[in-house]
Amino acid sequence: MSTLFTGTAPPLPATRGLILIVEDEPEIVEIVRAYLARDGFRTATAANGHEGLRQHLAHNPDLVILDVAMPELDGWEVLTELRRRGDTPVIMLTAHDQDIDKLTGLRIGADDYVVKPFNPSEVVARVRAVLRRTQANRASADKARILECGPLRIDLDLHQAHAVIDGVALALPLTLTEFRLAAYLARTPQRVVARSELLTACLPEGDTLERTVDSHISKLRRKLEDARIVGMPFSIRGVGYRMAAE
Question: What is the 3-state secondary structure (H, E, C) of 144-209?
């Protein structure tokens, strides 16, 4: 591993964001902290999985650098909980250079993977790259907060749906479940979505029958037809639904 940075140049102002380092080896923590500080990042640290989760709640970091082999909770368990909480970017640190470990991390939701021993400058470069990518994805997601499919317009922030006919917007009186179904289908209007997927993604807990989806879709379609939007959602016999007819 590279030695701790000892150059004379002062660190950049800490303006790039907060990085949480969850690692039980103090030497590694100090090296990574020093290189991140030199690049303008603030840092918080935790020496085990439980403390890492507490620090994540306390600081809401911009990114987590997460060791795999740690006491109390290992990195896989911590990553699973972080993904349950949200989409904070995570870079895994591990001594295992095995494809199965990389696949496990990526499957659970890691954004990148660095194998020990590593060059600390590479870790900083990975941090910058992951932050650039995730911030770009969030910017794209923000632009997609309004969904449009033909005359149907859905505002996800205001939780409102309108039929726009001849330039006039008519509010649609959708229930919560109907709104969820309309929004889910409108995100990818050409994709056929199975009833089982709609059941999991849109219906309240406790609804377990796929035919319940058909009932809600029928009511949604009737409200759209009342607003002069005909043929949406479109039924694919024996499979599911898509928002666009073709």
Answer: CCEEEECCEEEECCCCEEEEEECCEEEECCCCHHHHHHHHHHHHCCCCCEEHHHHHHHHCCCCCCC
The 3-state DSSP class for residue 12 equals: coil
The CA distance from 62 to 133, in Å, is 12
Task: Please check whether residues 159 and 105 belong to one and the same domain.
Answer: no
Show the domain range for 110.
Answer: 18-142
Does the pTM exceed 0.70? no
Among 2-11, 25-34, 71-80, 112-121, the range with the most confident prediction by mean pLDDT is 25-34
Q: Using an 8 Å Cβ cutoff, are 199 and 211 in contact?
A: no
Q: Are residues 124 and 165 in the same domain?
A: no
Tens digits of residue pLDDT in 57-102? 999 999 999 999 888 899 999 999 998 888 899 999 988 666 666 6
Question: CATH code at 50?
Answer: 3.40.50.2300
Q: Say which residues have a Cβ less than 8 Å from residue 98's Cβ, sequence separation at least 6.
A: none
Rounded CA separation 127/35 (Å)? 11
Using the CB atoms, write b or e for 73-95: b if 16+ within 10 Å. bebbebbeebeeeeebbbbbbbe
Domain's final residue, options 142, 174, 201: 142
- Residues 28 and 115 occupy one common structural domain: yes
In a domain? residue 12: no
The two three-digit tokens of residue 80, written as one number: 């699973």
pLDDT at 8: 41
